[in-house]
Amino acid sequence: MQIRFTTTDDSRLWDSLVAASPGGTSFHDWSWLHLMTDMFGWRFTPLLVLRDRGPVGVFPVMMQPSLVPRAVEPPFPYVGPLVPESLLVPTLRAFRSWQVRHGRPLVRFEFGPGVAGSAERALAETRCEWHADRTITVDLVGATPESLTAGMKSNTRYHLRSGLRRGVEVRPALPGEITTLLPQLLEEAYGSRGVPSPYPADLGARLERWSAGREDFYASTAVIDGEPVGLLVALASHPVVCGWVGGSLRAHRAASPSTVLYHDALQWALRRGHTAVDLVGYIDEGVAKFKTGFGGKEEPYLRAVSSTVPGVVRSAVGAVRART
After folding, report:
1. What residues contact 168, with CB distance under 8 A and at least 6 apart?
2. Tens digits of per-residue pLDDT, 234-243?
3. Which residues pair with 130 in a beta bridge?
4. DSSP structure string for 25-75
5. Rounded CA separation 249/229 (Å)
């Protein structure tokens, strides 16, 4: 079989191919990828994967613009090729040739939980390097509002009741709250780990403009006595909701607003008929414990690298960059 690639500007075709794939997520959607690449200044190459001239999938390629384009590591997961399982090996092999022709010596991509198993088998037959990571997903199939709450761990139910007793309320984010709250939450979250937020300061403002009028977007604010104390953002353009980012301000965490927020997001997804909520990322033991408290289960996803540069050269370049 012959696999070829061509670029596209057809957003409807792109999104239809993403929606047809079991690995498709909101992070693959045309509008999301353009929002992020515009915000970060990346160069986005939207490749269609063709077999016998017909499109069978997509392969988003994002690079840092430079004399020799460098691979980016998006601060959101799962963005990678979406093709039928039987075509993944020939697609990855053909992609190496595309890399050589187009001067992309190293490209990073990922495979989400929906296709991690088939991707692992395919990657074993290619020259790609890869490793497994984890996320936590709450299954909603057959759930009811009551069973969803009953399925939470006892400690999480305790914090939910405690938050409600302390007056935590959740409502849709008001205009301006994503703009102001989200950067603050990210700075606190990443700062607690000793690193700066990877997102630019205007993330909230851009996201608020992008999401205006969208029904497949969850943004709710936790308030105590009318004061915003937390925010959660989720992307819901696919059966599995991506609980992307959010939390509560450090000064108010004792009131458990994050627990009330996540519980509300799960109930919202259930009412809309989604099959699951991916809480996006294991992060560390503390965060994982919080997420699994909602009845979440660990699921693997894969991070891969396709490189035409020998490993010894990449190691030397990395060492030089680390010293400069």
Report:
1. 222, 223, 224, 229, 255, 256, 257, 260
2. 999 999 999 9
3. 304
4. -GGGSHHHHHHHHHHHT-EEEEEEEEETTEEEEEEEEEEE-SSS-EE---S
5. 6
Cβ neighbours for 281, distance < 8 A, ≥ 6 positions apart: 77, 134, 135, 136, 287
| More confident: 323 or 301 | 301
Question: 271: number of CA atoms within 13 Å, CB side?
Answer: 8
Distance of alpha carbon 142 from alpha carbon 126, whole angstroms: 39
- Are residues 62 and 79 in contact, defined by beta-carbon separation less than 8 angstroms? yes
**CA–CA separation, 11 vs 66, rounded Å?**
26
Q: Which residues contact 27 (CB under 8 A, 6 or more apart)?
A: 33, 74, 76, 77, 78, 79, 235, 242
Q: With CA atoms as reference, report the closest residue to 88 among 108, 106, 111, 71.
A: 111
What are the strands of the beta sheet with 217-224, ordered from one edge?
Answer: 106-111, 297-307, 129-139, 276-278, 240-248, 227-235, 217-224, 168-172
The answer to whether residue 293 scores a pLDDT higher than 80 is yes
Reported as type and span, the H/E element at residue 114 is: none
